[in-house]
UniProtKB/TrEMBL annotation:
Any one GO molecular function term: ABC-type nickel transporter activity
Keywords per UniProt: ATP-binding, Cell membrane, Ion transport, Membrane, Nucleotide-binding, Translocase, Transport
Keyword match Ion transport: yes
InterPro entries xrefs: AAA+_ATPase, ABC_Ni/Peptide_Import, ABC_transporter-like_ATP-bd, P-loop_NTPase
EC number: 7.2.2.11
Record's protein name: Nickel import system ATP-binding protein NikD
Family: Belongs to the ABC transporter superfamily.
Main enzyme class: translocase
Localization of this protein: Cell inner membrane
GO cellular component terms listed in the entry, alphabetical order: plasma membrane
Keyword NADP annotated: no
Pfam family for this entry, one: ABC_tran
Amino acid sequence: MLVLRDVTITFRRYAGLLRQVEVPGVRGVSLRLAPGEVLALVGGSGAGKSLIAHAILGLLPRNARLRGTLEFDGQVLGQPYPPGLRGRRIAFLPQQASHLDPTARVGRQLAWAARRVGARADLGARLAALGLPQGTTRLYPHQLSGGMARRVLAAAAGAGQPDLLIADEPTVGLDPASAARLLDRLRAEATRGAAVLLISHDLPAILPLAHRVAVLVEGGMRAEERAADFAGQGDALSSAYARALWRALPQNGFDPDA
Ligand SMILES: Nc1ncnc2c1ncn2[C@@H]1O[C@H](COP(=O)(O)OP(=O)(O)OP(=O)(O)O)[C@@H](O)[C@H]1O
Ligand code: NI
């Protein structure tokens, strides 16, 4: 249902007074994501993960240039961006908590999110599922901790029943219990039939949830593996890069001299 073919994103930058250069952000990335499937997009800082999310959502900055094709359910995700997708059929849990409106209480913002997708606002249950107290609805964004703000965004993104949910580093800044609850919510969305694109730099954290793992390095796709193959010594992994990544994790006790 989500198909990216040879997606390249470059940025125009001034090099000196008049000369413009194009610097690459993402190069030739292809991927597919089916309903009910969790695809993890992992990679280090600056690898291009958020750019891919923003490209799918039609939210790239003005100085960006996009090549290749993106399709969702047979519709081309170009400019102008197809109506009825962003915030409705495609939900987004952004990396930055600054996406909350500073002037409105949490309860109102969640009610807006629910109304936009035509969902019943069962705020109490949704907050409780993410481990937030009921009183959270009366708070303004500046009264939330970073981790609370991220969970409020998650509650908003989960309103309605999106067909595609894109979560950009959803567990950063959360304590382990809150992170586990949030990943449980994402798993429940996939079980219901949503496609989930889970962006993270933390491979071990997303493995219990992901079906497939795509590894992005400096804007390019370096490996695509089944999540289940990240196990043991990683012998089932198809690419040497993924094997090296897996064996380099501290918990796998990699011995460089062995
Ligand atoms: N508006 C912009 N103008 C120029 N370059 C940009 C812009 N936005 C992103 N980039 C560049 O594109 C690259 C990828 O950025 P992106 O935000 O996708 O990384 P990321 O993988 O999400 O990293 P992180 O894990 O830190 O969030 C970076 O090198 C960044 O400098
Ligand atoms: Ni990012």
